[in-house]
Amino acid sequence: MTLVRRATNEDLAALSSLAARLFPLGCVGTSEADLAAYIATELTPARFGEYLADPNLVLLLAEDDGAPVGYLMLALRSVQELAAAHADAATLGELRKLYVDPAHHGRGAAQELMHAALQVLQDSGAAAVWLSTYSLSLRAHAFYTRQGFVKVGEKLFQVGSDAQRDFVFLRQLS
Question: What is the DSSP letter of 48?
Fold first, then answer.
């Protein structure tokens, strides 16, 4: 059974390890050097510590029998102008990361993380949430569409020297 809870400082090493292992799975065709550069700057225990210390960010951890199997990072207030063009920026949340170990795909961890994130956003007063995901991540597109998100645009996401084309999705919360 999957348990979702807020991450703590005690989870930094586990989050970093999980993130470093899962991030490359969503970056089809990205060079190992570009992946390594991104992981070395954005997915370290120290960086996750910065995320946890930011009052605008929420990190949720999914566990199965006490072992981390997925995580989600949420910004309670988005500062991205692209998505703000589609919703009131003052009440717009942003889902920044959602990764689940492939061994747990189809077992409810992603849905549990999403459910918890949407509850956090609603409790914070957000009226909508947006996210971007790699244009080649068809499984992610299908999941987000099932969760009520609608594609509203595109943007670039930098992974090392690789500028990847991401699709932007938006969901109204109430």
Answer: H
Q: What is the pTM of this model?
A: 0.89
Q: Is 94 exposed, middle or buried (0-12, 13-18, 19+ CB in 10 A)?
A: buried
Nearest to 131 by CA among 151, 112, 146, 115: 151
Place of tokens 């029998």: 65
**What residues make up the domain containing 161?**
2-172
φ and ψ of 145, to 5 deg: -65, -45
Give the pLDDT confidence of 51-86 residue by residue, as tens digits.
Answer: 999 999 999 999 999 999 999 999 998 766 555 555
Q: Which residue in 133, 165, 156, 160 sits closest to 38, CA to CA?
A: 160
Residue ranges of the chain with per-residue pLDDT less than 70: 79-90, 162
CATH number of the domain that residue 108 is part of = 3.40.630.30
Cα–Cα distance between 33 and 93 in angstroms, integer? 32
